[in-house]
Design brief:
The complex is a heterotrimer of chains A (152), B (112) and C (183). Chain A is built from six helices and no strands. With 152 residues, chain A is mostly helical. Chain C has 183 residues and is an all-alpha fold. In chain C, α2 runs antiparallel to α3. The longest helix of chain C is centred in the middle third of the chain and has 23 residues. Chain C starts with a helix and ends with a helix. Chains B and C meet through α1, α2 and α3 of B and α1, α2, α3, α4 and α5 of C.
Chain lengths: 152, 112, 183
């Protein structure tokens, strides 16, 4: 990010228009991937990374102010902690029936969206954790000012 | 057997890059390549000739599935690899900000 | 299996280019080519979950690497004890390849895995967990402890990046010159 003053305003009009059209689709695709993780390929890891990529897409095209207004750093860390807490509390709720990570919700009918007990909930928790964590890493690396003025 | 050796050759290329190169970004590239090779080795061990992917289908009974356990292990390993790569890059950028170079032979000041 | 050999040789060529090219940005893009080839190899080896994850992770990794190397065409250094370093590296790699070749003969042949544990997962997985995707049932039900450890590692890495890359660090009062340097 050599010329900072230009990059903070974002890229050109073409890139901004295409980003405005596609960023919602990318976010929706991430949600689809993570919510169907137990019936088709995908799952929490891939879905979380795709959700993080949609916000990174926004940040690359529009500059960091717009993306950080949509998803501030406090909200990011809240989501990451929330993912960890949901994961652990689901695991601890298994003690009601016996052991850690017990699949205590009813399995339901296979090949349906609402089936497989705790697996979809754990997928959502993992995706929150991965997405928020990777977005926080990216924001930290972008905000890191490492090139002093004489280098540009 | 030959395919295992090709995979190990990829790993050796990554190790060569880590040991021989003098640029921090090149060292990170070597770590990434060897990590790819390790992930590939797990999946190669899991493959079964003529197998299908380990996902059931409502229409037909699938009997010859490939091994699902290494795939699950590799799935977590990939995301961890991304996080550790980001940590390495953050440290490398800090070093660049302090010493103005990525060359590790020129980073010889110890005053932190 | 022809396409598998082809893709592996493509990945090896990409790795050689990534290691030996002088420009850092070209090196990073060659790594991206290796990663995308790896994603297609996963797809051929019937691991669609891993292929999707590898694809998206590769994109993010490439963005972060380009962020680190943008507009820094630095001279490529080969100073130091050139001969000794190369000799030691080549000896190490030769011994590694020899030992791994000896060890590979004890592995089962390619295409015939042992599957002692995994056959039980594949047989009972649908009934015991209700999940159609066996990989999801392994990482989130049978072996959820692994995923818990993975979440811990990810959390630690995020904390490490935020600690290394934060804007305002604690400084001693005598480090005035560092403070004006823009950190």
């Amino acid at each position: 990010m050599g010329s900072k003053s230009k990059n903070e305003q974002g890229m050109t009009l073409i890139v901004k228009t295409i980003t405005r059209l596609t960023v919602g689709l990318i976010l929706l695709y991430g949600i689809y991937i993570l919510s169907h993780g137990h019936v088709s390929p995908g799952g929490g890891f891939a879905g979380g990374v795709i959700i993080a990529l949609s916000f990174i897409h926004l940040m690359l095209a529009y500059g960091k102010e717009v993306a950080l207004k949509r998803l501030p750093k406090g909200v990011t860390s809240f989501f990451e902690s929330m993912g960890a807490i949901i994961f652990l509390s689901i695991a601890l709720l298994g003690f009601t029936g016996g052991y850690f990570f017990l699949n205590f919700i009813s399995k339901g009918e296979p090949f349906r969206l609402f089936s497989a007990g705790i697996i979809p909930i754990l997928n959502i928790a993992i995706s929150l954790k991965v997405g928020a964590g990777l977005f926080a890493i990216f924001v930290a690396l972008v905000l890191l000012k490492l090139f002093p003025p004489e280098d540009d | 057997m030959i395919i295992y050796l090709l995979c190990l050759l990829l790993f050796s290329l990554g190790i060569y890059c880590v040991l021989r190169k003098r640029n921090i970004i090149k060292i990170i590239v070597g770590i990434i390549i060897s990590e790819y090779a390790v992930n590939l080795f797990f999946i190669l061990v899991a493959y079964r000739k003529g197998g299908r992917s380990p996902i059931f289908s409502p229409d037909s009974a699938i009997l010859n599935m490939v091994d699902a356990l290494p795939q699950a292990v590799v799935l977590t390993s990939i995301v961890i690899g991304l996080a550790t790569t980001a940590l390495l890059i953050a440290i490398a950028m800090r070093i660049y900000g302090k010493h103005r170079t990525f060359d590790i032979t020129r980073i010889n000041e110890l005053n932190g | 299996m022809f396409e598998l050999y082809f893709l592996l040789i493509f990945m090896i060529i990409g790795a050689v280019i990534a290691i030996e090219i002088k420009d850092l940005l070209s090196s990073v893009i060659a790594v991206g080519a290796v990663g995308l080839g790896l994603s297609i190899v996963f797809l051929i080896l019937k691991a669609p979950d891993v292929a999707i994850t590898q694809l998206v992770v590769e994109i993010l990794c490439l963005i972060i690497l380009i962020r680190a190397t943008l507009k820094k065409d630095l001279p490529f250094s080969t100073t130091g004890r050139w001969f000794l370093n190369t000799l030691i590296t080549v000896l190490f790699i030769a011994s590694f390849l020899f030992v791994s070749w000896k060890a590979l003969r004890d592995l089962p042949e390619f295409g015939n895995p042992l599957m002692r544990v995994a056959s039980a997962y594949l047989r009972d997985g649908l009934l015991q967990t209700g999940s159609t995707n066996i990989v999801a049932s392994v990482i989130l039900d049978y072996r959820a402890y692994d995923t818990l450890g993975e979440a811990t590692v990810l959390f630690t890495a995020v904390i490490g990046v935020l600690a290394v890359a934060r804007l305002i660090g604690r400084k001693k009062p005598e480090d005035k010159d560092v403070e004006e340097d823009g950190f």
